[in-house]
Amino acid sequence: MKFIPVIGRVLFVAPILVFGFGHFGSAAEMSGMVPSFLPAPTLIVYLTGVLLVGAGLGIAVGFKVRELGLALAAFLLSTAFLVWAPQLADGGQMAFSAFMKDLGLAGAAMFIAYFGAGPMSLDAKNDD
């Protein structure tokens, strides 16, 4: 049972890391998805890629998990409602799937923020 938290953290961050690295390889395409009221869309794509990769790696090793979980939850909720929700009215299946994915991952990030990293983490070693 002691391995469940670390396996859960790694499984949770697997898609987060894939999405984060995708921001670097597809920044030009993704910049068109940035809400129009935000400046410098390409820069925002790169910065959110850094957020996703950094938070993903931190959660995987169990470092500052509560803070990173909250940051990820805020990012995922803002993406769900600012990027995907406006596209739901068009009936796009991809937008619906992405909206639901972001909601689910945000919920999991909130659980991680609340319960922490658990054993076998850098946070647990720092508490000793």
Question: What's a concise summary of this model?
Answer:
The protein has 128 residues and is an all-alpha fold.
Task: Set out the fold topology.
Layout: H1 4-25, H2 27-31, H3 41-61, H4 65-88, H5 93-115, H6 122-127
Our Rg estimate from Cα atoms comes to 15 Å
The helical percent reads over 70%
Strand content: under 5%
Termini gap: 20 Å
Structural class label: mainly alpha
Biggest sheet statistics: none
Would you tell me the overall average pLDDT?
Answer: 92
Count of DSSP strands: 0
Contiguous uncertain segments of 5+ residues: none
Overall number of structural domains: 1
Note the run of SSEs as H and E. Answer: HHHHHH
Overall geometry = elongated
Number of helices: 6
List keywords for this structure.
single chain, 128 residues, mainly alpha, 6 helices, 79% helix, elongated
Give a written overview of the molecule.
By secondary structure, the protein is mostly helical. The chain has one domain (4-123). The chain has 6 helices and no strands. It starts with a helix and ends with a helix. The model has no long low-confidence stretch (mean pLDDT 92).
